[in-house]
Amino acid sequence: MIECAITINGERTMFSTSLKINPNVWNAAKQRVKGKTQETQIINASLQAIHNKLYEKALKLTPKGLFITARRVNKPMQFYNKSLKNLSFGV
Question: Quick check: 74 and 5 in contact, CB under 8 A?
Answer without folding.
Answer: no
